[in-house]
Design goal:
Elements lengths: L17 E5 L2 E5 L7 E6 L6 H12 L1 H6 L2 E7 L3 H14 L1 E2 L2 E2 L7 E3 L4 H5 L14 E6 L5 E7 L7 H17 L13 E2 L21 E4 L2 E4 L3 H7 L3
Parallel strand pairs: 3-4, 4-7
Antiparallel strand pairs: 1-2, 3-8, 5-6, 8-9, 10-12, 11-12
């Protein structure tokens, strides 16, 4: 039916499948990347300043994301020629924030029809009818959506936070813990009471000696930065 409003994907849903042309050839998302983490992100338009600063930042961190077994996939509702010309301009001309000659090696989806943007709820008419907002979907190796972020057109994202979220999700999965506010590797983690925090594992008998409990419902334990880092990307 025309004008039917599609439900936006939510945390816990399987990432909707699509085929698209990109700057790196055709892709099937997420199935081409099953077994890897994926970050699917949208930006409003090529040849705009905030987006340029974001792409340069993401390109500068691509090796970090690869080490975390994570594939980056960008999208805007522009065409292939525009994408290629913009990425070439970034490489050839833009010297910003200590970054220059930045090569964007991850795929940038062509979505002139807005099909993918609509499928993922990236067109938010209160902000813009004609551009995608700045969305970030974290999709796990089994293709399930684990975190979603939305930013408006005028505010560039914090890429350090994007990396922290990816590391946090991998830590949750590998250690069966939850993570407190502002957690970073090496800080204490939360061992949730049974059936809370969406974590499969909960406190085990015999584990008490390693726990620090602020109250019965708030117990933590230490996992070293080295232990966390040894598991990342797995
Ligand atoms: C930007 O990326 O600079 C931008 C894009 C769309 C609207 C406003 C800013």
């Amino acid at each position: 039916m025309e004008n039917q409003v599609k439900a936006m994907p939510r945390i816990g849903d399987l990432a909707p499948e699509f085929k698209a042309v990109t700057t790196q050839g055709e892709i099937n998302f997420p199935s081409d990347y099953t077994g890897k983490w994926k970050i699917l992100f949208s930006h409003p338009a090529d040849f705009t300043p905030v987006c340029t600063s974001e792409f340069m930042t993401f390109a500068s961190m691509q090796a970090d994301f690869e080490k975390l077994n994570c594939q980056l996939v960008g999208l805007s509702v522009d065409g292939l020629h525009s994408h290629i010309a913009w990425l070439r301009t970034i490489h050839d001309k833009i010297d910003w924030n200590g970054l220059k000659n930045m090569e964007v090696k991850f795929p940038l989806i062509v979505d002139i029809t807005m099909e993918v943007a609509n499928l993922y709820g990236m067109i938010q008419p209160g902000e813009s009818n004609t551009s995608a907002v700045r969305a970030v979907f974290f999709v796990d190796p089994s293709n399930r959506i684990r975190t979603i972020m939305y930013y408006p057109l005028s505010l560039g994202r914090n890429f350090d936070e994007i990396k922290r979220v990816l590391i946090g999700l991998q830590t949750v999965d590998n250690f069966g813990v939850a993570l407190p506010a502002d957690w970073r590797p090496g800080k204490e983690v939360i061992v949730p009471p049974a059936g809370s925090c969406g974590v499969a594992k909960s406190r085990m008998e015999g584990e008490e000696k390693d726990l620090h409990c602020y109250d019965w419902f708030f117990c933590t334990k230490q996992i070293s930065k080295e232990e966390v880092e040894a598991k990342l990307g797995k």
